[in-house]
């Protein structure tokens, strides 16, 4: 959908009419000596509410990602980015979303929580989108959101950029491109397209490449109109002071983050090579993420065996027959996994 169409036509009626909560910190933005406006306790270190708009983080991200601060939403993990999209755009019991399976399980769970039907399209030929199969749905009025996970979890591959672009051009609903793993990928982010397509939401996270899964901070990048909707629907103080501080610390130490990504990519190649030599391994799928989808003789057996060896991987047998998903760990962790797998028989 090109930038001249009105995103408001996609918004739920009750959200359009919503009068957002205005917090004490929303109403006063300047500096002052005495704050008696938010019923806070005057004692302690963390006694004040956090910045509800996370301005410092947005300013840093704006410089790094080359987008405007009003094109950024900071959420409590990208799971909040996903859930709020349902609550903004999808009328419960009426609207639908579309996912390409196998993919990240939270789209489905979030849909179920919000009583939204999911149309599941299987990925084909090395886990790519079939535009032919998708075509009839693009004009479906009740279809509000298409989720594209790229690089995709659990398959690891990126989705063809031309296919993503085709969907953006031809679908009049919201397209969420989940780029949780983008910093491990050889493909470019779609973030540069948010000025061109006003129905595009890019979801990224501090949980993976930034190494802050414990912190719970996810980010949505989109046209200003969508970000305004997110800000109206989110809980006022959705990202705590501690979480904001942890993110800022990491952003200010970006060299270490880059170094860790390089190490993970190096280890990913070594792990892929080592796995490929094992007799139980049938196929190691190509990956653009920090994990590998691996087809083995018997996924259930391999999974159980590794648990006994105190190594936990993800059994994806129900999603992709006899496949396991292995996260790239440290050199020592990967070696421990490989040596356990060598002794499986
Ligand atoms: N998207 C994808 C594709 C994921 O795999 C995950 C986590 N496994 C998430 C989003 C959730 O990220 P967050 O920790 O930011 O909620």
Helix segment count?
A: 12
Q: What Rg, in angstroms, do the CA atoms define?
A: 22 Å
Based on secondary structure, the structural category is alpha/beta
Number of domains: 2
H and E order: HHHEHEHEHEHEEEHHHEEHEEH
Extended strand count: 11
The CATH C-level class name of the largest domain:
Alpha Beta
Q: Tell me the helix content.
A: 25-40%
Query: Which topology of the largest domain does CATH recognise?
Result: Aspartate Aminotransferase, domain 2
Low-confidence stretches: none
- The average pLDDT value, as a whole number, equals 96
Small molecules held by this entry: 4'-deoxy-4'-aminopyridoxal-5'-phosphate
Sum up the overall morphology in one term. Answer: globular
Spell out the CATH superfamily of the largest domain.
Answer: Type I PLP-dependent aspartate aminotransferase-like (Major domain)
How far is the N terminus from the C terminus?
54 Å
Largest sheet: 7 strands, mixed
CATH arch. level architecture of the largest domain: 3-Layer(aba) Sandwich
Q: What topology, given as strand order, has the largest sheet?
A: 1-7-6-5-4-2-3
What percent strand?
Answer: 15-25%
Short description:
With 345 residues, the protein is of the alpha/beta class. Helices cover 34% and strands 16% of the residues. The protein has helices at 13-16, 24-27, 55-65, 78-89, 106-113, 131-134, 161-170, 224-233, 241-251, 254-276, 299-308, 331-342, and strands at residues 72-75, 96-101, 117-122, 143-149, 174-178, 200-205, 218-222, 281-284, 291-296, 314-315, 323-327.
